[in-house]
Amino acid sequence: MSDTEKRADGETAARPSARRTQQPASFEEAVARLERLVARMESGAEDLDAMVKSFEEGQALVKFCGEKLSAIERKVEILARRADGSVAAEPFGDLPPPDRG
Questions:
Q1: Using alpha carbons only, what angle is made at residue 53 by residues 65 and 14, rounded to the nearest 5 degrees?
Q2: Helix (H) or strand (E) run with residue 5 in it
Q3: Cα 62 to the chain's mean position, in Å?
Q4: How far is 36 from 54, CA to CA, in rounded Å?
Q5: What is the distance between the alpha carbons of residues 38 and 32, in angstroms, rounded to a whole number?
Q6: CA-CA distance, 53 to 14, in Å (whole number)?
Q7: Who's near 65: CB < 8 A, 6+ residues apart?
Q8: pTM surpassing 0.70?
Q9: Second label for 48, Cα 20 to 30 Å away, from 24, 72, 81, 83?
Q10: Tens of pLDDT, residues 64-101
Q11: Is residue 13 within 8 Å of 19, Cβ to Cβ?
Q12: HSE-up of residue 55 (Cα within 13 Å, Cβ side)
């Protein structure tokens, strides 16, 4: 079956199912896909319809990345929360604490 259908005005249009993009497996995969989309769009090789489709896919990937980052931020905040309920800035990983002097 084709990913396009004939409209009443004789033009072809992408079917809604053809516009859906597969959910990325990870934040890194989403960023890599975004980089490829941007490169294709900046190359000028795509026609207007393809550019719009790429833009829509990019918007979905940006949303996915934002949601992932928010979830990680909440997780880090929970891990940094003190027993009294306050949140303390804690060094992350092998980074030395900032010089307060």
A1: 130
A2: strand 4-6
A3: 3
A4: 10
A5: 10
A6: 9
A7: 27, 30, 31, 34
A8: no
A9: 24
A10: 999 999 888 888 877 777 777 777 766 555 545 555 44
A11: no
A12: 8
